[in-house]
Amino acid sequence: MTITIYHNPDCGTSRNTLAIIRQSGEEPQVIEYLKTPPSRDRLVELIKAMAMTPRQLLREKGTPYAELGLGDPKWSDDQIIDFMLAHPILINRPIVVTPLGTVLARPSEAVLDILPNPDIGPFTKEDGEVVIDATGKPVV
Fold it and tell me: Which domains does the chain have, with CATH numbers?
């Protein structure tokens, strides 16, 4: 089974998502999207698969979002995609693709919805937040 994660190793949510995937018994294809951005066609496919708009995938924090004026509704979907391609840091992450679906894994445990083996046992995020307890039950 092929699982792909569009990953930023500097992002805690992305690292936690990768750890969840690996704990499920899968070794995903890891694409560091800041080094290897998706093509326009691939980005459009990912957005469509997640049933999002390009604007919903925009990342604001730690990006040139404000400097570029991307909060202005004047920008079309195509223009927003152009900005994401020119500045990949604007693409929110991590995006995970499995045969069961595609998600923006924010929070990281959202990836459980599309993993072939979501019963991963106990899991604690790197910040100490318990996501799945010792009995295998999600912590809410």
Answer: 1-33+93-140 (3.40.30.10), 38-92 (3.40.30.10)
CA-CA distance, 10 to 127, in Å (whole number)?
14
54 as an active site residue: the answer is no
Distance CA 121, CA 112 (A): 12
The burial of 120, by beta-carbon neighbours within 10 Å (0-12 exposed, 13-18 middle, 19 or more buried), is given as buried
Going from the C-alpha of 27 to that of each of 21, 55, 91, 124, the distances in angstroms are: 7, 30, 23, 19
User: What are 115-139's pLDDT values in tens digits?
Assistant: 999 999 999 999 999 999 998 888 8
pTM of the model: 0.94
Which residue among the candidates 3, 11, 20, 70 is catalytic per the annotation? 11
